[in-house]
Design goal:
Strand content: over 45%
Structural class: alpha+beta
Number of strands: 3
Oligomer: single chain
Strand order of the largest sheet: 1-3-2
Distance between the termini: 6 Å
Number of helices: 1
Largest sheet: 3 strands, antiparallel
Order of helices and strands: EHEE
Length: 66
């Protein structure tokens, strides 16, 4: 089994379900099966006068046989 990780969009206009459905179907046409969606928090360290900021990133996980 091999896996592919696809970064989800940062901003979504309209219905987010339609956007994710489109992405999942796009990769399904290439033989990938949807596995799950994960969220990771990425922290920017900031600087001298700037506080660290956290941003959530969404990843779609796909799988297929080798």
């Amino acid at each position: 089994m091999i896996y592919k990780v696809v970064k989800g969009p940062k901003a979504v206009e309209g219905d987010p379900c339609n956007l994710f459905e489109t992405l999942i179907n796009q990769y399904a046409k290439e033989g990938w099966r949807y596995h799950s969606m994960e969220t990771i928090t990425q922290t920017d360290k900031g600087g001298c006068l700037k506080q660290p900021t956290a941003t959530n990133m969404y990843m779609l996980i796909f799988e297929k046989d080798e």
